[in-house]
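S1.2 Input.
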Amino acid sequence: MLWVGALIKYTVDLMTEKTTIKVEVAYALPHKQALIEVELPLGTTALEAAQLSGIVNNFDGVDLDDAKFGIFGQVISPTQVLRGGDRVEIYRPLTADPKEVRKARAERAKERRQQDTAD
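S1.3 Output.
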């Protein structure tokens, strides 16, 4: 006889529930890069992950307190709580204003076109 709606008992073993996550912390310079995998407690923030990874030991002048962070190219708050598999990226400060760089590049291209037509 088939019991429709029979009571099924589910149990959860709290000792087997995952209490840690694995994430990667990345930082790069033009000539040197680092990608460090770390296992951290649930609820860890991006800033905490960067601090706990020890990545600052591999680079001079990295200031995590003033750094910008991202996950897979999307800028996030340093207080963003991480999920397993996230890659925390530590961004370097800009050395030039992107608008000014584009403006200068456009001006150089315009000058080259004018020279080409004059020749």
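S1.4 Remarks. The two ends are 96 Å apart (CA to CA).
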